[in-house]
Automatic annotation (TrEMBL):
Keywords carried by this UniProt record: Hydrolase
PANTHER family: ALPHA/BETA-HYDROLASES SUPERFAMILY PROTEIN, ALPHA_BETA-HYDROLASES SUPERFAMILY PROTEIN
Chain ranges of the AB hydrolase-1 domain: 21-251
Domain of life: Bacteria
Presence of the UniProt keyword Glycosyltransferase in the record: no
UniProt name for this protein: Alpha/beta hydrolase
Pfam family, one: Abhydrolase_6
SUPFAM superfamilies on file: alpha/beta-Hydrolases
InterPro entries: AB_hydrolase_1, AB_hydrolase_fold
GO molecular function: hydrolase activity
Provenance organism: Fusibacter ferrireducens
Length: 277
């Protein structure tokens, strides 16, 4: 499906019916990353409408000179919400750069958002605190089967190298990486990766249920920066998982699924409490 913002056709997919959950992927993959994360959770849950978006320059959504910085990227997402979700309250899940956009969305429309999930979220556009590179499980035989390009992409984030995490990466992450508009994305990263209102985010208190899922071996965004903002989320759960990097959802899938389901329960409970009071 398509939504048009100015001259940009934004690709999106909707799965299921019920309470909307906006799914925002990270920088250079596409909506398939979030589908690989989240759809297994809803196998036995039929009361959520999952809204997956391809950000500009990623997936089937083309980049554009009209998007000069992350403020513009956020405006695309906010306008998309207004058109596709409307005035209905919703949940939002953001991975990596999508987590950064999630914080921006909370800044602009906090009353409409009932809860937020941050998966390996980018807290700072620059000067991040990240751990030293560490591979927990190595699989030389697996890596030897891959082409140089595939091996380089997979090794860049995989701290648990096994058949299951490779299949997940190959199916849900790599297709978006290969399709990304690298020229557009490199320009955005160099010229306007951070919000112009970053200072305001440091005082945004969000009192709805929140979950931060972080990998102890994540060298992309780290795990310490998310801990540093936890006081802004009085109902926030923070988890830093060992044996997990920037592909936490695949490397710790059992805990990922359990913790996300617990977050959904807290969101439902909080909404029931607000409705009855």
């Amino acid at each position: 499906m398509w939504y048009k913002w100015k001259n940009i056709k934004v690709n999106y997919e909707i799965v299921g019916e019920g309470k909307p959950i906006l799914m925002i992927h990270g920088y250079t993959p596409d909506h398939r990353l979030m589908m690989g994360c989240m759809e297994p959770i809803f196998d036995a849950m039929s009361n959520y409408k999952r809204v997956y978006i391809d950000l500009p320059g990623m997936g089937r959504t083309e980049g554009s000179d009209q998007i000069k910085n992350s403020d513009d990227m956020l405006e695309v997402v906010r306008s998309f919400v207004n058109e596709i979700i409307g005035s209905e309250s919703f949940l939002v899940a953001g991975e990596s750069y999508g987590g950064y956009l999630t914080r921006g969305l909370i800044h602009e429309m906090p009353d409409q958002i009932e809860g937020a999930l941050f998966i390996c979220a980018m807290i700072k556009p620059h000067d991040r605190v990240v751990p030293h590179r560490e591979i927990i499980l190595k699989n030389p035989e697996l890596l030897a089967r891959l082409s140089d390009q595939k091996r380089e992409m997979y090794e860049s984030i995989a701290v648990v190298q096994d058949e299951r995490t490779w299949e997940h990466f190959k199916t849900y992450v790599m297709p978006g990486l290969l399709k990304a508009d690298e020229v557009f994305l490199e320009r955005l990263r160099a010229d306007g990766y951070g919000f112009t209102f970053d200072d305001a985010l440091a005082s945004d208190v969000f009192e709805k249920p929140v979950l931060f899922l972080n990998g102890k071996q994540d060298t992309s965004v780290g795990y310490k920066d998310a801990w540093g903002i936890l006081d802004l989320y009085p109902r926030g759960t923070y988890v830093a998982l060992d044996r997990a990097g920037h592909s936490l959802e695949a490397e710790q899938s059992v805990l990922f699924n359990a913790l996300v389901k617990e977050w959904l329960f807290r969101c439902e409970e909080a909404n029931d409490e607000r409705t009855s009071s």
